[in-house]
Amino acid sequence: MSMLLVRLLWDPLPDMLPTAGRRFPRLRGLAAALTGEAVPMSEQERVDRRVRRGAVQRLVREAYLAAVAEQDSEHRPPAAFTGAWHAHLVGFLGQVRADLPGWGPITISDVDIDLAWNLYELASRARQDAIEHAIATRSRRVQRGQQVPTFEFSIASDGDALGDVTYGICRPCRVGLLYKIGFPPDWQFCGFGRLALSQLEARHPDLTWYTTDQFKHAKGFYDRYRQGGGSPWTAEQHPCPHFV
After folding, report:
1. Cα separations (Å) of 38 from 17, 28, 80, 87?
2. Pick the CATH number of 135-225 from 3.60.15.10, 3.30.930.10, 2.40.110.10, 3.40.630.30
3. CA-to-CA dists, residue 14 to 4, 9, 176, angstroms
4. Does the CA dihedral 2-7-9-11 come out positive or negative?
5. Residue 138 burial by CB count (10 A; 0-12/13-18/19+): exposed, middle or buried?
6. How far is the C-alpha of 193 from the C-alpha of 182, rounded, in Å?
């Protein structure tokens, strides 16, 4: 997962946040809100502030997780996912109390609403930024006990892996087999599957590509991908006999 997204939604919010360069100028505004403009506080006031800050973070995170939980059925692309996340947060903040798992009831009138929306905007931008800057890492050799060479690469953003791809190739038979491609629900339907397949084609041209039986549930995706003229991806499920 994007490290900045983890920092914003899971890690205890520090008094200061990294500026992350020009891509996140509003991080400075959030950092100012977190420090409380450096107003002198007693130790109890600091504890109370951390608790309120944690409640805000938990609300934004639970709204995010609610949107993630719907991905298997809704298949939302990035903009629609962000809209669903926004809607869940509106729902939480519109209640008198929100009872969150592992936290207990939160009285919404005690929540810093501005901080909640500031945090949501930054976290949603961090997710979109991770999607926009995602690239495929270099292929690395792995061992799977196969006769053919097997490789793996990741789809990553700013060094954080968002998903992994494992495949094998048989050069004499000019065949490639995609063993596994997987992304957690957070990063599904973001275009990474197409990026992964196009990378396989570019790295190993002139191969006929196969998928395994485990991809039957993704048949629609592969059928759509193969619609392009001259696609090297076949609907057959039996590559050359060297893949055993």
Report:
1. 14, 14, 38, 33
2. 3.40.630.30
3. 13, 12, 47
4. positive
5. exposed
6. 9
Q: How far apart are CA 59 and CA 112, in angstroms?
A: 11
Give the pLDDT score at 144: 80
Task: Tell me how crowded residue 192 is: count the other CB atoms within 10 A of its CB.
Answer: 20
- How far is it between the farthest Cα atoms of the chain? 73
CA distances from 169 to 128, 207, 226 (A): 33, 8, 19
Give how far the C-alpha of residue 146 lies from the chain's centroid of Cα atoms, to the nearest Å: 31
Place 25 in a pLDDT band, splitting at 50, 70 and 90: low
Residues β-bridged to residue 109: none
- Is residue 130 a contact partner of residue 5, using CB atoms and an 8 Å limit? yes
Q: What are the structure tokens assigned to 193, written together?
A: 């599957």
For residues 221 and 190, the answer to whether their CB atoms sit within 8 Å is no
Position 153 confidence tier, pLDDT thresholds 50, 70, 90 = very high
CA-closest candidate to residue 92, choices 70, 115, 111: 111
Work out the percent of the chain whose per-residue pLDDT is above 90. 56
Q: Domain extents for the chain?
A: 3-132, 135-225
Q: Quick one: average pLDDT of 55-84?
A: 96
Q: Return the bridge partners of 176, or none.
A: 169, 209
Q: pTM, whole model, 2 decimals?
A: 0.85
The residue behind tokens 């998903």 is: 163
Q: Are 231 and 176 in contact (CB under 8 A)?
A: no
CB-based contact 113:55 (threshold 8 Å): no
